[in-house]
Specification:
This protein has one domain: Ribonuclease Z/Hydroxyacylglutathione hydrolase-like (Metallo-beta-lactamase, Chain A). It is 35% helix and 25% strand. A hairpin with a 3-residue loop joins β1 and β2. The termini are far apart. The mean pLDDT is 97.
């Protein structure tokens, strides 16, 4: 069993979830089918499923081409996306199961970036695919929900075991960490992650995956209880409320302008 990142567009990731014993795989969030098909062929695999996290074209733009290229391909999609997943064959909802051979994944509903955004959690792989909801040191913009919805969705992901690996939809890590440091400059874990990221990107390497446990240590959107973060926000806006959703909303507002 393995997870392989396939770079897409300028900063997107698709991921192959591989059942090595049966030489088959699924792909999470395909925007460029040719690159995914080339990697599948290079590894001698059979593509059996497509697992989109949400409907945005940079995550599903390759679905139709994949469906044309691979007979009987199963294309999953959240029923709460209102039919916006191209080539969808199987509707799924929160708590449903998807499979890649013997590898079982659970669908987790995490709306707010889109109304039907989902994650795929594979306990046996200790991995979760979070699309554009949870990034390394960041979270997605709130397009089809509100701050309460996004905070609840992030809370569902944060409740996964700390050693769960986080595979997100974009390589946004360095800029996310730069923003986080404006709010928690004294956070040692955050500073260490930023320095590691700068070295890693300078070497042309990916920053994914992270882990749920690490995100709790340096992701500002999972740290609404941080005294330093709260103090930084109040210097910027003394009127910000004490409730976690108010802290989150102000943090998201600042990140939107960063």
């Amino acid at each position: 069993m393995a997870i392989v990142a396939v770079p897409q567009l300028t900063d997107n990731y698709a991921y192959l979830v591989i059942d090595g014993a049966r030489k088959q795989c699924a792909v999470v969030d395909c925007s460029e089918a040719d690159k995914v098909l080339a990697e599948v062929s290079r590894r001698g695999l059979k593509l059996v499923a497509v697992l989109p996290t949400h409907w945005h074209p940079d995550h599903v733009g390759g679905n139709q081409e994949l469906a044309r290229a691979v007979p009987r391909l199963r294309v999953y999609g959240a029923r709460t996306e209102g039919g916006r997943i191209p080539a969808m064959t199987d509707e799924v909802g929160d708590g449903d199961e998807v499979a890649v051979g013997p590898i079982r994944g659970r669908v987790i509903g995490i709306p707010a970036h889109t109304s039907g955004h989902i994650a795929y959690y594979f306990p046996s792989l200790k991995a979760v695919f979070t699309g554009d909801t949870l990034f390394i040191a960041g979270c997605g913009r709130v397009f089809e929900g509100n701050a309460d919805t996004m905070l609840a969705s992030l809370g569902r992901l944060a409740a996964l075991p700390d050693d769960t690996q986080v595979y997100c939809g974009h390589e946004y890590t360095e800029k996310n960490l730069q923003f986080a440091l404006t709010l928690e400059p004294g956070n040692a874990a955050l500073k260490a992650k930023y320095e590691w990221t700068r070295r890693t990107r300078a070497e042309g390497k990916f920053t994914i995956p992270s882990t749920i446990g690490d995100e709790k240590r340096f992701n500002p959107f999972l740290r609404t209880g941080s005294a330093e973060l709260r103090a930084s926000l109040r210097k910027i806006d003394p009127s910000v409320g004490d409730e976690p959703v108010a802290i989150f909303a102000k943090t998201r507002e600042l990140k939107d302008r960063f």
